[in-house]
Amino acid sequence: MDDEQPTLADVARAAGVSVATASRALTGSRPVSGDRVRRVQEASRALGYHPNAVASALRLQRTETVGLVLPRYTTGFLSALIESVSEGLEQHRISLVLRYSEADAQHDVDNVGSLIARRVDGIIICPPSLEASRESIAAAGAVPVVQVGRFVETDRTDSVGLDEDRATDLLVAHLAERGVRSILVVGLDQEVAADSRRIRALALAASAAGLELAVAPFTAAVLEGGIRAGEWLVAEGGVGEVPEGGRGGRPVDAIVCANDDVAAGVLAVLRMHGVAVPARVQIASLLDLAPGAEDHSVTTLRHPWPAMGREAVRLLLDARQPGHDRIARRVTLAPQLVPGASTLP
Amino acid sequence: MDDEQPTLADVARAAGVSVATASRALTGSRPVSGDRVRRVQEASRALGYHPNAVASALRLQRTETVGLVLPRYTTGFLSALIESVSEGLEQHRISLVLRYSEADAQHDVDNVGSLIARRVDGIIICPPSLEASRESIAAAGAVPVVQVGRFVETDRTDSVGLDEDRATDLLVAHLAERGVRSILVVGLDQEVAADSRRIRALALAASAAGLELAVAPFTAAVLEGGIRAGEWLVAEGGVGEVPEGGRGGRPVDAIVCANDDVAAGVLAVLRMHGVAVPARVQIASLLDLAPGAEDHSVTTLRHPWPAMGREAVRLLLDARQPGHDRIARRVTLAPQLVPGASTLP
DNA sequence: TTGTACGCGTTATCAC
DNA sequence: GTGATAACGCGTACAA
Question: Does the structural domain B60-162+308-334 have CATH classification 3.40.190.170?
Answer without folding.
Answer: no
